[in-house]
Design brief:
This protein is mostly beta strands. It is built from 2 helices and 8 strands, in the order E-E-H-E-E-E-E-E-E-H. The chain has a single domain, classed as Phosphoribosyl-AMP cyclohydrolase (Ubiquitin-like (UB roll), Roll).
Length: about 120
């Protein structure tokens, strides 16, 4: 398989989806090295655009993502990782999923999750 990293500016969107429930937990970016590390270790690695470096999900929080399956789209420039979330949640704000709000027709956001999976202050300081 030849993923199209160069055609996409070296970064591909990476969707992390719970392998059992199908819930989308987060969306991030992955470069070729992060992809190789993910496949080699079985744990999700992403590329941080703000920090300009590869990071392994859970390296700070202990909330790892174990890869169960990798899906590639037809253009080979987007990935879905079916993962098992280990520990707390996927979102750094404390929710299980980064998608805990719904956009309303007036542009406002409505909270759709009633409680957090963990306290981010205790995890990140």
């Amino acid at each position: 398989m030849a993923l199209q990293f160069n055609d996409a500016g070296d970064l591909l969107p990476a969707v992390a989806q719970d392998w059992e429930s199908g819930e989308v937990l987060m969306v991030a970016f992955i470069n070729e090295e992060a992809y190789r590390r993910t496949l080699a270790t079985g744990r999700m690695h992403y590329y941080s655009r703000s920090r300009k470096k590869i990071w392994m999900k859970g390296e700070t929080s202990g909330h790892f993502q174990e890869v169960k399956e990798v899906l590639v789209d037809c253009d080979e420039d987007a990935l879905v990782f079916k993962i098992r979330q280990v520990g707390g949640g996927a979102c750094h704000t404390g929710y299980n999923s980064c998608f805990f709000r719904r956009a309303e027709s007036d542009g406002s956001l409505t909270l759709i999750k009633d409680r957090k999976a963990f306290d981010p202050e205790q995890v990140y300081g």
